[in-house]
Each structure stands twice: as C-alpha cells, then as structure tokens.
Design brief:
The complex is a heterodimer of chains A (about 350) and B (about 375). In chain A, about 30% of the residues lie in helices and about 25% in strands. With about 350 residues, chain A is of the alpha+beta class. Chain A has a domain at about 170-335: Phosphoribosyl-aminoimidazole Synthetase, Chain A, domain 2 (Alpha-Beta Complex), CATH 3.90.650.10. In chain A, the strands form 3 sheets. In chain A, strands 9-11-8-12-10-13-14 form a 7-stranded mixed sheet, with helices on both faces. In chain A, strands 1-2-7-5-6 form a 5-stranded mixed sheet. In chain A, helix 3 (about 85-95) packs parallel to helix 4 (about 115-135). The longest helix of chain A has 17 residues, at about 115-135. With about 375 residues, chain B is α/β, with parallel strands linked by helices. The longest helix of chain B is centred in the middle third of the chain and has 17 residues, at about 220-240. Chain B starts with 9 loop residues before the first helix and ends in a 13-residue tail after the last helix. Chains A and B meet through helix 1, strand 10, helix 8, strand 12 and strand 13 of A and helix 1, helix 2, helix 3, helix 6 and helix 16 of B.
C-alpha cells in the first residue's frame, strides 16, 4: 500500500456478464458474486463482515441497528399489500433481525412523470398505516421525479434505525451446532402472490402476500428470556438461500425436515405448476430463528402465542462440520442438498 | 395435496424399494427418458435407495438441452433486432449460444419476454400489430400441440406479425438412435409419461419388438419412478420385453387424439439437429408448407446462421446416457450455472443442473440416522 488511493480500488467483477442482469439482484449466487467481488472490497464496513441485513453500531455505549432497502415491486398493488406497506415491512424486518426495536424510518420516493396522484396517495396512506402498525415514525424523506419512461411509476427507498434494548449478540457467528431452527410460519406466499398478479395467472384461490412487520414477534423471544443465536428474515431467495448464507457464515451444517415446513396447499399447487421450489420463493413476513436445541419448545410456545407466529415450527437443526452444507430430508424419506440458487427461478417449459 | 402427496409417500417408497431389492438378481441398466424424471431421481435421491445392481442412466428428454446451439444464436439475432419482440419459456433464457444468452440480450436492450403459453405470444401480436412477435418454440411432443395451436390461431386470425422459431423433437427416433448405437448399454426404458399423455404409447410398440427392450411408461413423482423401475426390473429378470404403462392415471394407448390431429395439421416430420448429438433422421417437426409464412427463420432470413458448440462440453454423451454429469472434467469447475458451457447445466430439466444443484457435495451425504 503506497497511499490512500491504493485502498479504494474496485476490482471489476469477472463474471460471465458484461452488463447487469436481473439475477444480480435476485438474492442468489450471482448477487453474492457481485457483493463479494465488487461491493465488499470497495466498501468494507460492518455489514460486509457480518453478512447481516442491518449493521449494528455502537453510539456512545448504546447499540443501534441501521439498514436501508429499496422497493421496486411491480405490480404496485398485490393481494395482501402494496409497495408502500412493503417498504415499511422490509426495512422494519431487517432491523428486527438484529434483535433491535425499530424506531425511525426515512422514505425516499423516485416517481415517474405521469404517475397518477391518486395512486401515490394510496401508497402513502398504506405506508402510514404500516408504519403506525409497526410502531415506527417516518422522520425524514426525499422526493425525485424522473422523465416519463425513465422509471417504473414509483420506486421507494426506506432506511431505518432501531435500538438494541438487550445485551444479546446475535448473528451467524453466534450459531452453534445443535441449535434448533424455527420457522415463524408458512412459506412462499409473498413470491407466489406477486407472481400470480404480475403474470395474470388465475388460480382457484387468492394467494395473498405474507407481508407483515416482524419486530414484535422477534422481540418476544428476547423478552421471554430465550437465548437467540440468530434471526434471519426469509426474503429474496427464501428459506434455502437464508440457510445457505448462515451455514456458510457460521461454518456449520444445517439439516431441515421438509415435511415439517408448512406451505399452504394452494401455494404448493401454484409452485408445482410453475416448477418453483417453495424453499426458494420470497417471503416478506417470515423469519428463521436459531436457538439452543433445548430451548426449542419454549421458543415455539412464545412464537405461537403471537398472531404472526401461530404456525411456527421447528424446521431443522444445525450440525457439526465445516462443509456448510444444507441438507433436507424430503417428504419421500430421502435426502437432498439444498443449494444456493444461481439466479431467479424461471418458469419451466413443461 | 391430492395427486401429489400420495406419490411422495415415505412408507410407499420404502415398500417399493424393498420389492425392487427382492426382485433383482443381476445388473441392469435402465434409462429414464425425461429430464423431469431425472430431476425427481436426483432431487429425491431415488438412485440411493436402489440396490447396487441397478444403474439409472439419464436420457435425452430435456427439450432445452437438445436445442441446437445455432437456434440459440438465431434467437439472439432476433432479440438484437429493434422491430422484434422475442417471447420464450423461462428456462430458455439462460441457455448459452455461441455468444451469450438471452438474459444478456435482454440486459443489452433486447425486447425478450417470458410467456407461460405460446397463445400469450399470439395475444401479444394481436395487441401490438406494429411489432413482430416471435415465439421461441422448442419442445418434445408435450409442448408441440400448444405451439401448433398458436400457429393455427395466428393463421385463422390472419396475423402478419407472428412467427415461431421452431425446433421440435420427437422421442421415439431418439430412443432408436440410442438403441442402435454401437456399445449401447441401455437394457430398459422408463418412457416419458407426459409425452405419452399426448402421443399415447402405440408408437413405442415397434421399438419393443425390434430391439427386445422393455419400455415402461412412467410418471414423475418418487413413487412413480420407483414403481416404473420395479416393473422394468421384473421384465428384465423374467426375460420379458413388453410395453407396460405405470402412468395409467394419465396415459392410454391412443393418447390425446385431438392434439395429434392438430400436430399433423401444422407440422410435418423431418430431420433435426440435436445439440451435442447431431442430426437424427425423421426426429423432429417442422412447419408444413401451408404454414411456412409463420417460420421466423424464413421471415427474418436466419438460415445462414451456424453456431459452434463448446469443445469442452460433453453434453452429447450426457444426453445419450454414456456419461454422467459429474464424470465431465468441466463439471462444477469450468461449467457452472453461472458460467455454463452447455444447456444441460442451466435447463430446469438438465441432468447437469440436477447434479450441480443436489449433488455438488456428494462426498458429504447425510447419514440416514441424522434427524432434523
């Protein structure tokens, strides 16, 4: 190193793609490559090291959590939510996964010229409702308007700050072999709700998103005195990607029991038709909690006492072994490896 | 879920696996034709519960995998045109051509869209008469009827801005190519249940007679596969070579007669290039002269494009069941889903993709006693 310039070089990602493709934001292996080859070397920082959805920072002896997320979902409105409520839930949940109590949000809007004012009003009202429900306050914001054709109607970015009111240190680093892995409810509803409304697929029943604020439910574990090792919301890439990330960061194995993991019947049906694996489909109101094996029963009781955790289950355990492999016992009684998805799940040909 | 859960039943799988173990007395090599079956086998570890005497080899039944590379290149050429909307099933988008794939073409500004049915592409053409809408029509007999219907509808509607880039292939000629190849080791087949739902199984009867090979029409769930293997093993052990139907909840001898009639109306049988395998006579479907106006290759003058396959990709050997994916030196090293050398690594029905997704850490399989 000869000077400060030497430290800010950004190594160009040497991948297959000359241009950014959608899968670079899909939460799978391509996005990991982008993070590892471009963003982490360039920025370093706390989040890069811990691979958490929010950074935990010390401010004069008080630990706070800080995160940001952008929302580009199309359609803007879908069964069970809209881009406004999602923008609140997404950021609140990222904060909650560090064990923090979310307090403040920012809201930045990138609007496309011509976007109907009535829709903007509806989205704003929905955001306000979601913030009220999640007990956070939107305290600052920004508005930009781009030329017609240069946006997709509306993009929203929210950043959030929360405080940690306890001394527990959670994250993949705290995961131990023998931990029980709890999943807070049924999987794959958000992804399939978006898919169905985006593509005009008409299923017999309405699949509504599971989008919900998770802080209350997550904090109830700490309040009950459960020793929480790690929390992770199961957003892009679903349960499978979250488990792979944690197994990799914690250096342990993970064994899941497919039969124990609830997926609603109509959601399973939709997944079967499109060739999607529910384990990889996005959720916006579900998380996995890693707790010491012997605490699993007590933790489940706490989760199930909350309306958002009624369907919580023990989905698996962590095992010894540095291979960081996620295996699942299938419903047929055989084993398979649950790998990291390499890109978006694409509907199959037949 | 009805019609699924009962075919993934743990106790049923164990019973069938035990029955197979009790029946088998000597080595047998059985090929499952369809890539969907390959994925079930690898995903559920079906081959792990089979006795060591039985070798399952994976067949050519992945439509995305056998699409020749020049056709991908033609699709890329179409995607680069300002006046064209290229529509395709989702899993064609990651398949590598000589230069890049359709996802890259989309990122570079091409109008590439995923559709769930070729009829959606026809709708798109009706809605936007100013643009040329091309549907990337690949597939076996399973997908061909819907593609034929799209052409038929476009013809009825008099659409001038709809065409298909077509590479349809047929299962029986591919099976015959495998059986007649020198050094063939396949002794029995699990035929592709969904292909037979459309075509029936009458057209496999001559193969059974000519090559004295058992063929069992088989479904796609773990119990289906185990049941199909059991029926095939029984035939081999008893020295029989017959056509049997495991997938009777969906397949009969005649198949879907209306779909077949539509196929004959729109398409005619002709030679086809199979990726990694080469030309097989009378192994594909092309548009009949009456429907030639809907042929994108002619409309956009693409016939001069010839693609080059990667020399390091052994997909031809994999698709014929000669090699297993992990026996390829490039597997998981030079060839990954992020940087594939060939289509089987990225298709949702590709054998290489199945091995990569579920078998990368082969050495560290779960001991059966470890419970979640």
């Amino acid at each position: 190193m000869t000077g400060p310039e030497a430290e800010v070089s950004c190594p160009a990602p040497k991948g297959r793609y000359e241009n950014v493709v959608l899968a670079h934001g899909g939460g799978g292996a391509l996005m990991q490559q982008l993070l590892e080859r471009l963003f982490f070397p360039a920025f370093g920082g706390v989040g890069a090291k811990d691979r958490q959805d929010a950074a935990v920072l010390d401010v004069g002896g008080q630990r706070i959590a800080f995160t940001t997320d952008s929302f580009v979902v199309k359609p803007h409105r879908f069964p069970g939510g809209d881009i406004g409520s999602l923008a609140v839930h997404g950021t609140v949940n990222d904060l909650a996964m560090t064990g923090a109590r979310p307090l403040w949000l920012s809201a930045a809007f990138i609007l496309e010229e011509g976007f109907p004012m009535a829709e903007l009003e509806a989205v704003t009202a929905s955001m306000a409702r979601a913030a009220h429900e999640a007990r956070v306050t939107v305290v600052t914001g920004d508005t930009k308007v781009v030329d017609r054709g240069k946006g997709d109607g509306i993009f929203i970015n929210t950043a959030g700050v929360g405080v940690l009111e306890h001394a527990a240190v959670t994250g993949p680093g705290a995961v131990r072999p023998g931990d029980a892995i709890l999943v807070s409810g049924d999987l794959a509803r958000h992804g399939m709700a978006i898919m169905a409304s985006r593509e005009g697929l008409e299923f017999e029943s309405l699949i509504e998103s599971d989008s919900a604020p998770l802080a209350d439910l997550a904090l109830s574990l700490f309040e009950a005195g459960i020793e929480v090792h790690c929390l992770r919301d199961l957003t892009r890439g679903g349960l499978a990607s979250a488990m792979n990330e944690i197994a990799g960061a914690a250096g342990c194995g993970i064994v899941l029991d497919e039969a124990a993991i609830p997926v609603r019947e109509d959601v399973r049906g939709a997944c079967e038709i499109l060739g999607f694996d529910p384990m990889y489909v996005a959720n916006e109101g579900r998380f996995a909690a890693f707790v010491p094996g012997p605490s699993a029963g007590a933790a489940l009781e706490v989760l199930r006492a909350h309306p958002l955790g009624e369907q919580a289950v023990k989905a698996g355990v962590t095992t010894e072994g540095g291979s960081a492999r996620v295996a699942v016992e299938t419903v047929a009684g055989t084993w398979r490896i649950l790998g990291m998805l390499s890109g978006e799940q694409l509907p199959r040909i037949c | 879920m009805r019609f699924l859960d009962e075919y993934r039943d743990k106790a049923g799988c164990r019973r069938l696996a035990a029955a197979i173990r009790q029946t088998v007395t000597r080595p047998h090599t059985i090929m499952e034709i369809c890539g969907g079956q390959t994925h079930t086998i690898v995903k559920y570890g079906i081959d792990d519960v089979l006795p060591p005497e039985i070798t399952l080899v994976h067949g050519p039944g992945c439509p995305v995998c056998v699409t020749p590379v020049e056709l991908i290149d033609k699709a890329l050429a179409l995607a680069a045109r300002q006046d064209v909307t290229l529509t395709s099933f989702g899993d064609m988008l990651r398949v590598p051509g000589s230069q890049g794939d359709l996802l890259s073409a989309k990122a570079a500004g091409g109008d590439v869209r995923i559709v769930y049915s070729p009829l959606d592409a026809v709708k798109l053409a009706r809605r936007d008469p100013g643009r040329q809408v091309v549907f990337f029509a690949v597939g076996f007999e399973t997908t061909a009827p819907a593609n034929a219907m799209a052409v038929y509808q476009a013809h009825q509607l008099g659409l001038k801005n709809f065409s298909i880039l077509s590479s349809h292939v047929l299962v029986p000629p591919a099976m015959e190519a495998i059986l007649s190849a020198p050094g063939n080791r396949v002794q029995g087949f699990l035929a592709a249940g969904h292909v037979c739902t459309v075509m029936g199984y009458w057209e496999y009867e001559p193969l059974v007679t000519k090559y004295r090979v058992p063929i069992v029409v088989t479904g796609f769930e773990p119990l289906d596969i185990l049941h199909g293997v059991y029926m095939c093993v029984r035939q081999l052990e008893e020295g029989r070579a017959e056509l049997e139907n495991q997938y009777s909840r969906s397949v009969n001898r005649e198949g879907n007669v209306q779909a077949q009639r539509l196929l004959r109306t729109v398409f005619e049988v002709g030679p086809r290039n199979w990726r990694g395998i080469g030309a097989i006579p009378a192994s594909g479907l092309g548009l009949r002269p009456e429907f030639a106006a809907f042929d994108a290759e002619k409309r956009f003058d693409l016939e001069g494009i010839v693609g080059g396959e990667s020399e390091r990709c052994i997909s031809g050997l994999v698709l014929q069941g000669v090699k297993k994916p992990h026996e390829c030196p490039a597997f998981g090293v030079e060839c990954t889903p992020e940087q594939p050398l060939g289509a089987p690594m990225v298709s949702s029905e590709g054998a290489c993709a199945a091995y990569y997704q579920y078998r990368r850490h082969e050495a560290a399989r779960q001991p059966a006693g470890e419970q979640a």
